[in-house]
Amino acid sequence: MLTLTIKLRQGQFLLNISAEIETQAVAIVGPSGSGKTTILDAVAGLRQPDAGVIQVGQKILFDSHSGINLPSYERQIGYVPQDLALFPHLTVQQNVLYGMPNGDAEEHARPVLQILEIQELLSRAIEKLSGGERQRVALARALMARPTVLLLDEPLAGLDVDLRDRILPYLERVREELKIPMIYVSHVPDEVRRIADWVIALADGEVVRSGVPAEVFGFETEKHLAQTDTKKGKQQPTGGSTDESHR
Q1: How many domains does the chain have?
Q2: Domain for residue 97, yes or no?
């Protein structure tokens, strides 16, 4: 179980949520600026809440009352940010194994590479990869940490529809074969329906609805997401792949 009670103020914006997540794949949806990425950053230890509790199973990552705030490297969190954060001067293999201790790293990497089908890319430079290949490399690197939770911040946002459809099965395989709890941020209802079994909808830093995808998503919800992104100039790509994810 993942317990999230987070209160965090950023200027005029206040994130104030409370949720207990028992399912394996949870999606966080909401208009831009509603606090989705801030939640992931707080879980990963990149932003410290003003108050609250973040707990994965029996492991307390943050507890303001007890003064607990584990550094990010002790949290055992896998994180794929919007910009993927790959090292362009390193090869695929060097990116995947970056920061891993010698020993069983390559052995541990083998099933991850097989699931994501990137064995043939190991000697390639990052700059030579397509957008979809980069997404899979970033996911592989996140999985190498043996995470107790996998955080995905709009991982397919920079891809066109065809590429998204080709990458989604890899995410489904990770969910089904590795059994790692996943928090998935997306603006695309079709992605959420395929990946998540529970959805948390945010607005203005608060949870406004939660439930299975069929309960949360409806015409008005999808229309609201689309209108909000259009106003901010963040329409979903309809053709041509790109290596850059919108933020």
Answers
A1: 1
A2: yes
| 236 found inside a domain | no
Q: Give the model confidence (pLDDT) of 18-55 as tens digits.
A: 998 887 899 999 998 999 999 999 999 999 999 999 99
Q: Is residue 244 part of a domain?
A: no
Alpha-carbon distance of 100 to 216, in angstroms, equals 39
CATH number at residue 184: 3.40.50.300
Structure tokens at 124: 């390639």
> What's the start-to-end Cα distance of the chain, in Å?
29
In sequence order, the β-bridge partners of residue 114 are none
Q: Strands 206-211, 198-203: parallel, antiparallel or unpaired by DSSP?
A: antiparallel
- Whole-angstrom Cα distance, residue 105 to residue 144? 8
> Please, what's the b/e burial string for 117-126 (b: 16 or more CB within 10 A of its CB; e: otherwise)?
ebeebbeeeb
What does the DSSP 8-state code read for residue 75? S
* pTM of the model as a whole: 0.84
Residue 62: both structure tokens together: 């943050």
25-29 vs 198-203, strand pairing mode:
parallel
- Residue keyed to tokens 């995410």: 171
For 8, the token pair is 């965090």
The residues, ordered by sequence, that sit 6+ positions from 179 with a Cβ below 8 Å of its Cβ are 24
List Cα–Cα distances, 35 to 69, 130, 144, 147, 185, in angstroms: 20, 30, 27, 23, 10
Q: Per the domain annotation, does 31 fall within a domain?
A: yes
Asked whether 161 and 188 are in contact (CB, 8 A), the reply is no
Sorted by sequence, the CB contacts under 8 Å of residue 39 that are 6+ apart come out as 4, 6, 15, 17, 28, 183
Give the residue numbers spanning the domain of 105.
2-231
Give 92-112 pLDDT, tens digit per residue.
999 999 877 766 777 888 889
